[in-house]
Amino acid sequence: MSGKPPAWKIVAAFTAIYVIWGTTYLAIAMMVKSIPPYLGAGSRFLVAGTLLFAFLRLRGQPPPTLRQWGWAALAGLLLLVGGNGSIVWAQKTVPSGIASIIVATEPLWIVLASWLFFRGGRPTLLEAAGILGGFAGMVFLIGPSMLVHGGEIDPFGAGLLVFATVSWAFGSMVSRHADLPDSAPMAMSMEMASAGVIMLLLAIPKGDWAQFSLSAVTRESFLGWLYLVVFGSWIGFVAFFFLMRHCRPSRAATYAYVNPVIAIFLGWLVAGESLSVRTLVSAAAILASVAVVVTFSPKK
């Protein structure tokens, strides 16, 4: 692993995942309006990963080993297929702002995954309180009655989002510890390309290919897809992978409590999504809990 990077690179990477990933929820909502979820996400990652990989190889980056490709495929499966792919699928039925709030619990899962499976530090009392508070906020947002009878928030979509946060947390830790190229862009290109292939294959039994019609793709969906390729993938994911290598995982995950503020505001301003008191209270509880976990998480 390379040495400590200059401070401006750290700041730039945090700025990228704070701002860009806050806007990707709206871009995903735009994309899935006329492009099936796994087909849209899979093609996004395959295009982004393949082009980035080719560019880096032309610039002289050494070819990865088969072992590194294996780790990249596992990390891509957890991080992008299970994580991002489930978010894309869920946003067919869950508004972008609410989706971003549920996903904001991801740092809580990272703390647990790091402690239980990756020899990280045991959570402190404040961390444990933050984890419980975050889960309580999420349950309040979804609502027990909604889980049983259904309601404003689709329970299946909400469940997918919870699964996505767990898968993303494990994928993040695998990316941090696995045998991957030192170059963050190269490693991320491999993960994106691998995940793209997996998602396009999964799109077959899911029926995405049968539902897809190129002529039916709207300008809005195409622009959402293009934004996700350029900004969400090439800039956002590479920045996140870079931070996972040079910062504590809980610090790198701080984007999770900045993104909802941007996502909720854009969803309300651009997409006309509702902004209820229940949503605001849940958001405050979850984000405060995540902030406690991030602030009081143990050092490396």
Say how many strands there are.
Answer: 0
Radius of gyration: 18 Å
β content, as a range?
under 5%
Query: SS-based structural class?
Result: mainly alpha
Give me the strand/helix succession: HHHHHHHHHHHHHH
Mean pLDDT score: 84
Gap from first CA to last CA = 15 Å
* Count of individual domains: 1
Shape: globular
Let me know the largest β-sheet: none
Name the poorly predicted regions: 145-150
Helix segment tally: 14
Helix content: over 70%
Tell me briefly what this model is.
With 300 residues, the chain is mainly alpha-helical.
Keywords summarizing the entry:
mainly alpha, 14 helices, 0% strand, 300 residues
How would you characterize this protein structure?
- Helix content is 76%, strand content 0%.
- With 300 residues, the protein is an all-alpha fold.
- It has one domain.
- The longest helix has 28 residues.
- It is globular, with a radius of gyration of 18 Å.
